Amino acid sequence: MDRPAPRRVTIVDVARHAQVSTTAVSKVLRNAYGASPAMRLKVQQAIDDLGYRPNAAARGLRGQTYTIGVMLPELRNLFFADILDGITAQLGDSVYQVLLAPGCNGEKAEARVIDAMVDRSMDGLILIAPVSAKARLTEVARHTPTVVVGRHGSSTAYDTVTDDDIAGAALVVDHLVGLGHRRIAHIEHHETDRVRLAEMPNTQRANGYRQAMTAHGLEAEIDVASTSYTQAGGYLGAQQLLARPNPPTAIFAGADVVALGAMEAIAEAGLTIPGDISLAGYDNSALAAFGPISLTSVDQDGRQMGADAARLLVDRIGQRDRRTAQITLSPTLVTRRTTAALP
Amino acid sequence: MDRPAPRRVTIVDVARHAQVSTTAVSKVLRNAYGASPAMRLKVQQAIDDLGYRPNAAARGLRGQTYTIGVMLPELRNLFFADILDGITAQLGDSVYQVLLAPGCNGEKAEARVIDAMVDRSMDGLILIAPVSAKARLTEVARHTPTVVVGRHGSSTAYDTVTDDDIAGAALVVDHLVGLGHRRIAHIEHHETDRVRLAEMPNTQRANGYRQAMTAHGLEAEIDVASTSYTQAGGYLGAQQLLARPNPPTAIFAGADVVALGAMEAIAEAGLTIPGDISLAGYDNSALAAFGPISLTSVDQDGRQMGADAARLLVDRIGQRDRRTAQITLSPTLVTRRTTAALP
DNA sequence: AAACATTTGGAAAACGTTACCCACATCACC
DNA sequence: GGTGATGTGGGTAACGTTTTCCAAATGTTT
């Protein structure tokens, strides 16, 4: 039972068993030109008989690895899981296998992971919300087909799929203004890197918030707490906002997790939602939809974004010199029980 | 800017640049025996000069790939994310890169993913709660070092890391009995496969529940709803239990998500938690800890499990013929606001 | 029937690394 | 000054595919 496994079946074994050349087997495997139907049948039979599976390392040395690498900054973020679902759904029946690297937040971890994927000769990369410098992304995309998801700013080297975060922020502000709110505050993710500044979704959301407030003639009411897109950041941000001399009647949190943290701070302050204060998030994660929470949130359709990214990538692998594409999806607002009209 | 990338630097380039043989470079790369300190220095310098990175595919063809594959059934389950954290923390500074396959629930998807990892000559595999037949796991483990996490039943082919689910279930029952409850029901995951039956954690939890109830002389009160470890399963299970002629005063859900579903059903029935009914979950996921939910739950220390698994795996890669080890961790109970004493 | 195009199958050379050997130099020890 | 032992470095054959030829057979057109 514990004897070492016998040597793996190789293409040579298959060729011998089918009494053809290894070239012929390779052609059948890749559906390449130059094999008659009779040949295909014979080889396929041998493959099935022997239970042959191609060695990916050997393939990678000459041709493709049939592997697509996905990098995402954080596994716990359910929105990223949605994107991943879209990717796997799109690629489920293809010849490609998706592999992802676990949580790589921070530029250093990200660089390491991208290197690792390039080292492994992956056929294509999907980078979700990468923080690396644009020059670095461009360089990577030059040797490996790449799609960048959730980061604004187009490139001639890689395709992009983004959500229209400015429109998303406007949806929230419009909704709250429609409910009679005027003192609407925002909790943003503080970005330090000046180059990344304009390209990251958090910046876009903050800008969208400011633009929408201005459009409603509420520039005087603009109030932003600058923390981070985490539960702790939401807690802190809400505390800051509530301590203002003239606290807001509504808070637009830049992400659902931020809203969760804000909920705790609001409860601690003895206030109720949405009685005393309205609260909206962004991402429409499963958490937002969960009954007891029931958070009004902006829905980005992560599945669609993932599917689009996968489609673009496969397309580019097949045709590396085509012009790059930028897909922008429109978000929608899902209103739930955390936002209500001013009394 | 968009010119195609130049050919990648290979070991031959490094050897030429350092004026040594490729063998020497290879030795330095792998810290292998047979290279003098002077040689190491010279080669390292050349590697840095040229920005050389070894090609993983070529390595895989001869030696190791320095890649460890992790398979987990579900990305959204936060407990699995904890395990992954433990794995990456343990492997962070090692030479190994962790890659995981996205959600592979079901035997078929699981087989596909395991095949894909074996095809890619990964150095080792960590399988989290796999559902494949034991014979299959044994076969895989025979050619690739493997650690199975969260599945009971020892093997002579692979190491295992599990939580003591029987003890965990007992913790819950003891706690509820201590609060005065007698009619304590359980929502379990229905398992159909007879072979898997004894090895899966859900079965262990249900058995642990029955044993603990019996130990307290409450065999007459044993009441189990058999659904699934999902939110919908919890909703359904709680509905069934509440419809009994003599409904329970406490429910032990086999997993946190199950408890969430149960919460909804209980609220719909017009009952309050913990006033009318106490509720406990299993996994102590971030959801359970979240303020508004505050679910009493069994904590498994996923990080520790992951770290142990990674340690065992690296150990086995280095010494493939050592006896297999079984690590069992003891869970603890985290009491929160969903369980209370009977009035 | 000759000339040319197409289809079919295979031989052999990569791809970039590691493992196995062997050669040589140096050193210690009888 | 032999004789091993040890340290140091390299030559070369794998590893399992794909790719690039090329040759033979077959089909098609003049």
UniProtKB/TrEMBL annotation, chains A, B:
Membrane-crossing residue ranges in chain numbering: none
Keyword Lipid metabolism part of the UniProt annotation: no
UniProt keyword Disulfide bond present: no
A Pfam family assignment: Peripla_BP_3
Source domain of life: Bacteria
UniProt xrefs under InterPro entries: HTH_LacI (IPR000843), LacI/GalR-like_sensor (IPR046335), Lambda_DNA-bd_dom_sf (IPR010982), Peripla_BP_I (IPR028082)
Keywords of the record: DNA-binding, Transcription, Transcription regulation
Domain HTH lacI-type: start-end pairs: 9-63
Record PANTHER family: ALANINE RACEMASE, LACI-RELATED TRANSCRIPTIONAL REPRESSOR
Protein name: LacI family transcriptional regulator
Gene: lacI_14
